[in-house]
Amino acid sequence: MGNSIVSRIIVTLTELNVPTDGITPDMTFEAMEIDSLLLEELALRLQKSFGIEIETGELVPEQTVAEAAAVLMTKGVAVA
User: Fold this and answer.
1) Helices in the chain by DSSP H: which ranges?
2) DSSP state, 58?
3) Is pLDDT above 60 for 1?
4) Is the pTM of this model over 0.70?
């Protein structure tokens, strides 16, 4: 899995004031107590960061960080 994508997601969560200590790629957004509104803000920031379009509902609370990274990879985000 693209560690750089996972890292960017975690950095963005930090920017959104989500405590990121102990976050792993297999942790769900729900386990981090991130609601759908905060996920929308995350999606907007990731869109700007990667220059992609993320549709409403593509990032959901039940998803893991790694699954979210996989969604971004399907949109052409490089793993580099």
Assistant:
1) 3-15, 36-50, 65-74
2) S
3) no
4) yes
